[in-house]
User: Fold these one by one.
Assistant:
Number 1:
Amino acid sequence: MTSFRDIIAYLIKLRTKWVRILVPVLALALYFFILTFNNVHTEIYDIEPLTTSRETIRSPITIENEVETERKTREAVQAVEDRFDISTNIADEQTGYINEIFTAVDKLESESLVEDEDGVVQVPLTNREKVQRLKELLSNSITEKVEDSVFLRLIDVPKEERDKGKEVFISYLQEEFQRGVRTDNINSAIERVQENIRYSNLDQNVIEAIHELTSFAIVENSFYDSDKTAEAKKQAVSNVEPVIINGGEIIVREGETITNEIYEKLQLVGLLNKDRNVFPVIGLGLLILLVSSVIIYEMNRIDNQKRLDKGTIASILLISFIVVSLMKIMSIYTTQGNQFFFIVPVATGVLLVKQLINERLAILLSILFSILGGIIFNGEIPGTLSVEAIVYFFFSQIAAIIFLINVKDRLSIVRSGIGMSIVNILTILLFVFLSFEKYSIVDVLILSGFGVASAFLSAVLTIGLLPFFETGLGILSDIKLLQLSSPNQPLLKKILTEAPGTYHHSIMVANLSETACDAIGANGLLARVAAYYHDIGKTVRPHYFIENQLSIKNPHDVISPEQSAEIIIRHPYDGAELLRKHKMPKEIIDVAMQHHGTTLLKYFYFKEKETNKMVREEDFRYPGPKPQTKEAAVISICDSVEAAVRSLKEPTEQKIEEIVSSIVNDRLMDGQLDECPLTIKEVKIVHQTICEALKGIFHSRIQYPNKEEK
């Protein structure tokens, strides 16, 4: 049952853990907020209308100028002319009356011609008789409105002139009717026809007759159409584009007079309203809060897997500080006319994080850095994000993570830079092809050069900063581990020359440990390198360890078991002291100290017990500490397994299985794995992996006969 003291201890530990993570991240969040504050906060101006502007003022946001849009809409509606419906029936009717008049005159003329002995003669009729007869032939609509004098003039005109006048008159009538005769323009239509007839080459009597007929012939045939007019106004309104004030648009230039219209624009975009200016800042705070929460979550996840040391926390903070600061510095020189954000070495951060911590965190930070870059390069226009910067930074960083593989030396970073350059150029070409702007070949080459420079600077900065993080903050990278695994390392040479048996044993333990750690997802490379150095303490008294006793007498035969135990138990701590002296990474020092945990030195303990029944077990146990990491736990198992299997004269598969099971169960029962994060499932995987590896090493061989046997 858990005691109250244990609960209190757990709560204190939990509180310490969260303080250890929260405080640094909140400090980083505050730095992010300060750095991006001016990208969302706009300056408020205290100015009055009809004064002179002291500086050029740009709009901080994109917004519709509704007042100006309404004015343009009103003007568009007022510009729409009334729509009229022209009646062709009225036009046909009126031209029909004119035809009827001229036809009736022709008929009257033909009736007055009779044939006698002398030929065709004219029957004499008085003017009254002619008019009377003509009225009988015409419709009432004509006779009621046309004067008799018009008829008389037409009767007196020769037929050829009359026909010519009729043709000209009807053509002018049709032209006016097609144009549309309205109430407000009927007089002008009559005057136009009369004017045209007056200057024609017709007979004077025809001109005078038609002049009088015009008032009768031209009537209203165009009527106001409310539906068409309303539709036209509606169409005009829909064609009006909203008046938009774009973010970054110049509202007033330095030295320009602030008119009422300009003052209204300044008021509209919020440059005169202090209350409105706080909302973008709140939005920025929420964004920084979300970014910080993601970082805290990921750091807590890493801490649950393996304790998050101060060096790792400092690395995350320092890398984030460097990357965001680089973006901010470059944003100062970036304007709408250039695109200097293409040259920012933003991938430096993820290259460092992948090597110093892990790939998952590098991917996560690449997303967060891209979002922050979108704010930093928004041209200090609140409410906007630079989509180009976000996309470019994201693909550049992801390319750096993907191409950084098989890290064997610092040249792998350069190779990653080459892959980065290609992706950067492709991303820049993407923007060029999607843009409506026309880019010259020179512009494309310059922008591509920016992308190459970004990749090159990222690689150079990573190579330059990596030793600082490795040495200054004690972070162990794969490159550092590979350097430490070189046989030319002084300490490895020391083991080889002073304790060759221990060197061979360490190589075997390294092979087993790396295979087992890779199987459970632990750091196999760290396990290999740590295994190389885990028994470095044996070089202090190499001949007291059986693997180094070649053709010499065992010194333990002449000293007491208690002295032997004291010498053997000292080697992990002698090794740790030697490693510290050579400034080796803490992870490797910890493995050297922890690989025996608090195990019992059974051989000398039972040997002492034969003569001293009062012997204390604590005197024959290693002081510890027990393994704290997965890698240390695996190395402790492999160390014992390799020594035990090597002692077998004929190692069969069954014997290997038995001895590995015995050692693993003994470590579990003795509580040696209680303080490391290994799960039971992972212990089983380690057990199985070690057995398979040992079976591969000690496989059956053909025994070749010697001469005597032949």
Note: The first strand starts at residue 57 and ends at 58.
Number 2:
Amino acid sequence: MSLFDPITKLSGVGDKRAEALKQLGIENIEDLLTYYPFRYDDFETRLPSQTDDGQKVTFKGVVSSPPVLTHFGYHKSRLSFHLLIAHDNISVSFFNQPWLEERVEVEQEIAVFGTYDAIHASLAGQKIINLAENSLAAVYPSSQAIHAKTIQQLIQKAYSLYADQIEDLIPADLRQLYRLQPRKKQIHDMHFPNDAEEARLARRSAAFEEFFIFQMRLQLLKLSAQEHQGRAVNYDNQVLQDFVERLPYRLTDAQQKVLDEILQDLSAPIHMNRLLQGDVGSGKTIVAAVAMLAACSAGFQAAIMVPTEILAQQHAINLSNLYESCGLHLRVELLTSGLKAAARRQILQDLQSGEIDIIVGTHALIQPDVHFHNLALAVVDEQHRFGVKQRAALREQGQNPDILAMTATPIPRTLAITAYGEMDVSTIDQLPSGRKRIVTRWVKSNQTDNVFQWVKKQIVAGAQVYVVTPLIEESETLDVQNALLVYDQLQTEMAPYHVALLHGRMSNEDKQQVISDFAANKTQLLVTTTVIEVGVDIKNATVMIILDADRFGLAQLHQLRGRVGRGDKQSYAILISDPKTQYGIDRMTAIESTTDGFQLAEKDLQLRGPGDMIGVKQAGLPEFNVGDPVHDLKMMEIAQQAAIEITRQPHWDSDKDHAGLVKYLSLTMYRYKDFD
């Protein structure tokens, strides 16, 4: 017998039920035993005088009136009776459970669980409790295909049969140090606690185990990547120095620091897997440009994958111009799905023959027909927009190239040790000199006219303006501004200034033309959707108006705001919104109070929780079943450190105290083959 026996080993689990369980992530006995309840119903009995209005409670008393069953509507019923509890005689009602009438007899003592209405001294019953049961009852996530009660029964059956197969995963010294339960007791008390304290202690141990196993997997992925020897990129340092010296600006100390970290990785014969994070406008792109130049100076190719065609086009033009202005003759090409067939064929041919030095592209870079001559460095820009498997596919396009992932969405500590725990992290925490703080103001919609009067004055002074709307066209379900309507209105109101429209449904050629006209100041005001959220870099654009700003998340508002303030002029972001909830008000207050993306990321995490952070699911953050990586951050950090210390030990996997852990990891890592 093994915990990894298929679930069909249990009697009562045929193919149909096994499929229903698989939809819940349960494929074997181990999955079933660790399918923990999300809450417990407390069946400890109380008196009405001890119970708050609306509280779920169990009352034990004597039935003081005959049960009355009434039918109404279509297949609807109500069962009513009175229950005498000490000196209180309360009414009890069960809806649509007519079969309970047989279990209710006058002068019989019963216990009923339900929701108490203190004003009317009544209980909306949910179930009649067996007085022999424990006071806590586990409640499990379920589906239409399989009921929670069935899951509970299967867990009871599995535990009775397989309890002796449960081995400890956490080494004994760690269990002793942090007062963690043996795994057998932990699993038992998670499902069948006698009281709330037993459930709490079991959940504490289960949360640590979950974090610890997760961190062990990350460390094994990291070790595995290092075992797959990368190539040493012997770049020409003189070429890099000349390039940096010819730039029209000096690199900041923070840029130089992270560049040194990246170049050290490139020159070592190990596989680089580095995340470069920096706030909007901190200068990540130029760091990537130097890194790609390093690869090319050693005779290799480099690629940069970005999420949108607009950004790809901008990168291709800017990189080509940048290298040329510094006296370098690198061939930079663009590969997107919008290319005509003949042009695409030629680029693919030149890429495979090695005539192209740097390729800039979207998802088109990871299509099966894309082959490199000798790809050494793959850069993933705005990496939170890409899924885990997409990043893996880019890595597989070349000969296991070094990976540099970049993000302008600052990552809180919580996410850094979960979503990116297996990566080395470099941080640019300094903005280029000369950049002024973007003045951000939140105003109500009744001030919109005043805002656009002020906008006219800014345009007269030479500024260019973005107006961002949440939708392209009108929606019958959302009362928000839309780009087409706003565009029509502003063409009239902002005359004689030129107003243009940009949105995601336009052709690539039309998008690029609109951006080019705006960059050339042929357009003074650009009405746009979030298509400009990443990558659009127009230094003369100094004003951003965001309509219905409460419809956007904090990270997205910060990204949008980052489209202004790219030059040395004072820039402004005006958020127009009437939030209806405290959550919306909190977001507006937060974005107005700071331009520090790292502070906003922490605030966003507090407000929204880890599962909703922008791009988190794509980044690979697991949905923990027991632990909460926000509230249990200290526990996660301890688990991470423990995993690092264990995997650093020589022959750690031969230590008998790690036998259960090694066996478990060897049997489960296959599920995480795409995790990195």
Note: The chain is about 40% helix and 20% strand.
